[in-house]
Amino acid sequence: MSMLNFQAPSATGDAASSIPREPGLDHTRALLREGYRYMPNRFAAHGTDIFATRLMFQSAICVYGESAARMFYTPGRFTRKLALPPNALLLLQDLGSVVMRDGEAHHRRKEMFMALMAPDSVQRLMELSAAQWRSRFAQWQGMSRIVLHEEAQAVLCRAACEWAGVPLDERTAVPRTREFAAMIDGAGTAGPRNWRGLMLRRHTERWARALIEEVRAGKLQPPAGSALAVMAGHEDSDGRLLDVKVAAVELINVLRPTVAVARFIVFGALAMHEHPEMRAILARGDAEFMEMFAQEVRRYYPFIPAVGGRALQAFDWSGHHFRAGDWVLLDLYGTNHDARLWRDPEAFRPERFRGWRSSGFDLIPQGAGDPHQGHRCPGEDITVGLLKTALCLLAGEIDYDVPQQDLSVPLSRMPTLPASGFVISRIRARRPAGPDNAGITCIRKK
After folding, report:
1. Where are the membrane-spanning stretches (predicted)?
2. What is the CATH number of the domain that holds 279?
3. How many CB atoms neighbour CB 171 within 10 A?
4. How many Å is the maximal CA-CA distance in the chain?
5. Domain count, the chain
């Protein structure tokens, strides 16, 4: 992601000369030009899993691989404070959010999110998303063309809000979807996309604060256990209710990442298009293959490029001495394409996940480690479930054409997508929609 406008204090001196160092005063322009490939290109050139660079005139140490992920996600070793540029932080997390907390304060706040991830709760979100997809399918059949990314965001926004106990009608669904989409799209830049995301986020925060206030005033009663009820009633480690602004931020931090899964869904549709023999297997509702396919989508395609942390204390790793305050970037995309972990990593091969058992530090599109103890995204089960549900339905319940378009995925753009957003046309029903079709059965089977 872009490091523009990053004004955090530099680490305590430059990185030691024992590791490769990029020459020159600053390499931000190279990062923006190369995007997801910036760090992998240099790991390959140096023949190492660690190098030093300067981004936004700040010393940075870049690492990748399973060992690096273990190092980075060691509990208590890093803080996320001052580790993200403000232009990204204010769109993706915001001040006061769970990711900005450490130790017991982080653990207590993280428990709030993990409580939302119970199997029954996740299953309900899958069913709500399936209902939304089927409703959209019926509408698509009268339309000449569909941009799948736009439609996927609309589906997920509506499903997520209903699941979270958030009232949303057609009048408010469109602006909320647009706002969440702008936050996601603007997080990887410091230009107009970022400014638009920040501007629209202000509308979202006012809306979310009003919801929290209505719940606390007894004017709105969301279902018990829903995200809105949990955020409005959560007591932090100090025994006090969350500040209204912070509670609103955390509600957004449930809804916005759910909408972001639309990118994985589009990448899954692209993979089905490029591998029609795989789509045929998915259309049959093969649960084992669906799981493998979904995980390969998450491994193969670009999502979050990297995560950053500031070292809380000195330690040694891979022959390098890290000092308190050092800024470290873990390359998620590079680790997911690490040939030491993945045979032929630049090929899309779902079968690599047959019988796979994760170490917790190998497949890391949304972070590594234990989500209960560290900063790993708590919503990975939701991501996988939403992806499987969408692909089951797209493969099994409709047929469509993919007209000629630009399906390239530019790695210099963060976050990226197929350039066209993945356009489909001539949508036809493949089988009658029903509760027992592949879109639901494939996510219930283990």
Report:
1. none
2. 1.10.630.10
3. 7
4. 65
5. 1
